[in-house]
Specification:
single chain, Arc Repressor Mutant, subunit A, 3-stranded antiparallel beta sheet, 11 helices
Length: 241
């Protein structure tokens, strides 16, 4: 992959920000989404000033966000150059999905039938937010609410280590087909699986909840990765360099 030059600056792949209350967190979410969805391609070298110019903010919150992303494994620091978007092979993504399948679906069987009304209400609020974001094709909000939904569901186990590990695996997953799914309206169908999971948890159907989440995670490795359900990690031609 060639290094980013001024001619290849990613201004067309990042949306300028209005200045929010929590600028650093907003910058972090936008950059994370750009990496996860492939708008910032694997192997590309970027600098904080360049990204800041694209986002319409100073380099400081961008640099802080990129350091957070480095700790998440999404970027690596390049001395005197900036940051390189880390590459993920098919094997890497298969391994991430396999670990998630080992951890998350059985956890839903464990908590089914013991979820409080308050937790059901909180899960429903996040599921509703995910669906609205999918319908608006707002990938940044969708991925944030989706991450929060699954973290909350796993937190019902009372195991914070499980929540941290699963969330870390989720943020490292690449979902290059999610934009296509949103444009075709299919992301909303996936979002509705959150409501189905809530219903199964409330009904105490542990086997059903485990099976549904297994399928939901499998979508992230197949349909969400490519947009066509064929599996693998074919890159969107618009993001290839």
């Amino acid at each position: 992959m060639p290094s980013t030059t001024p001619e290849h600056a990613p201004e067309t792949r990042l949306t300028p920000l209005t200045r929010p209350l929590n600028l650093r967190e907003t910058v972090l979410e936008q950059l994370r989404t750009a990496i996860v969805t492939g708008r910032l391609p694997e192997g590309e070298v970027v600098s904080a000033p360049m990204l800041g110019q694209s986002l319409g903010v100073s380099a400081t919150p961008v640099r802080e966000a990129m350091m957070d992303l480095a700790r998440e494994g999404l970027v690596e620091t390049i001395k005197n150059k900036g940051f390189r978007i880390t590459s993920m092979s098919d094997k890497d993504l298969d391994d991430l999905a396999q670990i998630r399948l080992m951890l998350e679906p059985p956890a839903m069987r464990f908590v089914a039938g013991s979820v409080s009304d308050a937790a059901i209400a909180d899960l429903t609020r996040l599921a509703d937010a995910c669906l609205r974001a999918a319908e608006r094709e707002d990938l940044e909000e969708y991925l944030r609410d989706d991450r929060d939904f699954h973290a909350l569901a796993l937190s019902l186990t009372g195991n914070s280590q499980l929540v941290d590990l699963a969330t870390s695996l989720r943020t490292r997953t690449r979902l290059y087909g999610i934009g296509l799914l949103a444009r075709e309206g299919r992301l909303a169908d996936s979002a509705r699986e959150h409501h189905a999971l809530i219903a199964l948890l409330a009904a105490g159907d542990g086997a059903g909840a485990e099976r549904l989440l297994h399928d939901h995670i499998s979508h992230a490795r197949s349909i969400w990765a490519t947009g066509d359900g064929a599996g693998g990690t074919d890159r969107d031609p618009d993001t290839e360099t």
